[in-house]
Amino acid sequence: MKKKNAFTLAEVLITLGIIGVVAAMTLPAILAKTDKQETVAKLKKVYSVLSQGIKRSELDNGEISEWPTGAAITDVNAYFDKYWRPYYKNPKICSTAVACGYSNKNAWIKLNGQRTGWGVQTDETRVLFMLSDGTLIFNPRNTTDINGNNVYVNLFYVDLNGPKNPNIVGKDVFIFTLSDKKLLRPFGYNKKYEDLDCSKQSSGNENDCTAKIIADGWEIKDDYPW
Q1: Which own/partner pairs from 194-200 qualify as long-range (CB within 8 Å, at least 24 positions apart)?
Q2: Tens of pLDDT along 159-207?
Q3: What percent of the chain has pLDDT over 70?
Q4: Under 8 Å CB-to-CB from 91, ≥6 apart: which residues?
Q5: What is the rounded distance in angstroms from the CA atom of residue 154 to the CA atom of residue 177?
Q6: In angstroms, how far is CA 150 from the centroid of its own chain?
Q7: Which of 118, 137, 163, 205 could be joined to 102 by an S-S link, Cβ 3.0–4.6 Å?
Q8: Are the beta carbons of 84 and 126 closer than 8 angstroms?
Q9: pTM
Q10: Residue 66 phi, psi dihedral angles, 5° rounding
């Protein structure tokens, strides 16, 4: 009888062990890359949806810089129904972040682990709404500076997956603004690339992360604080 060659049990176990070690080393990197690609794809989509919605609304309602703000919004539901609702697919106003599924109305966190302190709710000066795909958009219209003076702002805080974790600015929460109150751009668009301080350091500014991703060609690179 001819003797058949075969692997011993020890050889099989060693091979499986090596495969397991290699998988354990490479899988996190693969998953991180996939998460980054999905995040960028969602960020591109919401940027397009917001931009197109604003442009369509402007055709009917005039330039956004002329829309009512702050105390001039006497009925936030009427304001939303005129300037926003017709230009997005099945959006809904949330009275607070909790009404949209968050654990509390201050659910967003900075890259360094601290809470943002943003009061995420709809009131007479700002509108919080969710799109049909679960994207949450928080649109402050008027606020105050450190001295209590009224300040007009046009910032669009976007949570790509709504109440789902991680709810971290720079991970699934990003910020856009209107340049000259007209063109939608990432917050920090007017900074030099080397001045975009998207980092976890206490001196960092995660608000710049949106601009960094776009400046990097819509890519989350290795130096990004992922």
Answers
A1: 198/111, 198/170, 198/224, 198/225, 199/111, 199/225, 200/111, 200/112, 200/225
A2: 999 999 999 999 999 999 887 667 889 999 999 999 998 887 766 688 8
A3: 84
A4: 84, 85, 129, 130, 131, 132
A5: 6
A6: 26
A7: 163
A8: no
A9: 0.82
A10: -100, 0
